[in-house]
Amino acid sequence: ACSAFSQKSCEECLKNVSCLWCYTNNTCIDYPVRSILPSSSLCSLSNARWGVCWMNFEALIIAIAVVAGLILVSVTVCCCYCCYCRKRSRSRLDEEEEQLARKREERRLQSLQRKHERKLKHDEIRKKYGLLQDSDNPYSRFENE
């Protein structure tokens, strides 16, 4: 029982996790589990100690609230930042992919155009030297004179 540690010291009282030390009358009482915060009729929050003797209950609640708030804000910011970055990187990747596809198509068209120009030039040379075969009969035999 926590009342056995009354009139002793705060450290001895708080060795038991279920105990609450009140500095107003130096008593060790059972922590009111049914209510989250101890009522002011038991002990005021500024004089109540739980867990550690060097921090009052009021400061402990504020510190826990600040830490929880910081964690919540940081998780929210991280989630929003990650979602924004993913969306941005996806759109950037799509743009790069489109640009690469356009360049690839341009290169293919340029290659086909150069190929066609080479074919025309080769056909002119063949015609000049009489090497061009009839288009009606492409399988005719080449005859030397």
From TrEMBL:
This is PTTG protein. One of its GO terms (cellular component) is cytoplasm. It comes from the Eukaryota. Residues 86-122 form a coiled coil. GO terms for biological process: protein import into nucleus. The chain crosses the membrane at residues 59-84. The keyword Metal-binding does not apply.
